[in-house]
């Protein structure tokens, strides 16, 4: 049970009840966004609600829980930090905290609806993806120009950093744009696949090689103060690639190394 909490001594499902309200609001917004047509209004309250819903769609997934668990394990086993194993309480706290911060950022963006008359968008249980930007190693809300949420084969909900001064920007997209979105969605969907030690075959017959579940990059920020910057990213698989500087700087309470990534 992902959301059964035990704070205060007695287990309860209050977080699950709160998320049920979010689910109801998500269904309502999906109906509104799916039926929206050029000339229709989109009220401010719906836009602010969409900012929150998109944050939950990004952060309330099995992959994010696996990601948090992998970080927790790395911090305890590899960085020798005295922290407790990940629990439902800490997972829910991290989820709501990240959602509130993400929703603030989402609400500063431009709402766009992209339509593909040929119905070539793909949906996924890792539904919201950040657009990959040229020259960027990792997609993030600070570097990604758009967030993509395919809600049907023919409609994509977009939050863009390109502010137009109107409530909704409506676009008809071409094949090149559809392919770019599809690649991002497929890559995001692959991130929730846990590969077996000997790999396995995808339903389409494509061989899927193992990739790291978690990659950790470390670079020094202030070597004399023993401070370093840790960046986590993930693919799919069962192992961890640790590219931290050697030794582990402040993460292991030792002196900073050169910071060269390996």
- Estimate what percentage of residues fall within beta strands: 15-25%
Based on CA inertia axes, which overall geometry fits? globular
Q: Which residues sit in consecutive blocks of at least 5 with pLDDT less than 50? A: 247-262
End-to-end span in angstroms?
38 Å
- Average pLDDT metric: 77
Beta-strand segment tally: 10
What radius of gyration results from the CA coordinates?
Answer: 20 Å
Please outline the major beta sheet: 5 strands, mixed
Count of DSSP helices?
A: 5
Task: Describe the 3D structure.
It is a single chain. The protein is an alpha+beta fold and 262 residues long. It is 34% helix and 19% strand. The chain has 5 helices and 10 strands. It has helices at 14-35, 44-59, 62-77, 88-106, 175-190; strands at 110-115, 129-130, 146-152, 155-160, 169-172, 200-201, 207-208, 214-222, 227-233, 240-243. The strands form 3 sheets. A 5-stranded mixed sheet has the order 2-3-4-1-5, sandwiched between helices. A hairpin with a 5-residue loop joins strand 6 (200-201) and strand 7. The longest helix has 22 residues, at 14-35. The chain starts with 13 loop residues before the first helix and ends in a 19-residue tail after the last strand. Residues 247-262 have low confidence and may be disordered.
């Amino acid at each position: 049970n992902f959301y059964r909490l035990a704070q205060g001594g007695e287990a309860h499902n209050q977080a699950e009840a709160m998320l049920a309200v979010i689910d109801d609001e998500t269904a309502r917004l999906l109906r509104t966004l799916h039926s929206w047509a050029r000339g229709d209004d989109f009220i401010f309250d719906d836009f602010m609600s969409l900012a929150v819903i998109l944050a939950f769609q990004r952060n309330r997934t099995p992959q994010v829980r696996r990601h948090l668990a992998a970080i927790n394990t790395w911090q305890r086993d590899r960085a020798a930090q005295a922290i407790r194993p990940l629990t439902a309480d800490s997972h829910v706290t991290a989820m709501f905290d990240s959602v509130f911060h993400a929703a603030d950022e989402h609400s500063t963006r431009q709402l766009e609806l992209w339509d593909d008359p040929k119905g070539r968008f793909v949906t996924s249980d890792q539904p919201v993806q950040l657009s990959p930007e040229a020259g960027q190693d990792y997609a993030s809300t600070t570097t990604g120009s758009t967030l993509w949420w395919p809600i049907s084969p023919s409609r994509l909900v977009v939050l863009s950093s390109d502010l137009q001064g109107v409530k909704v920007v409506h676009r008809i997209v071409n094949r090149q744009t559809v392919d770019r979105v599809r690649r991002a969605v497929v890559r995001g969907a692959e991130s929730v696949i846990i590969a077996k030690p000997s790999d396995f075959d995808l339903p389409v017959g494509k061989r899927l090689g193992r990739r790291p579940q978690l990659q950790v990059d470390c670079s020094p920020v202030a070597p004399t103060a023993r401070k370093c910057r840790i960046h986590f990213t993930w693919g799919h698989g069962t192992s961890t690639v640790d590219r931290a500087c050697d030794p582990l700087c402040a993460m292991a309470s030792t002196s900073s190394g050169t910071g060269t990534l390996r």
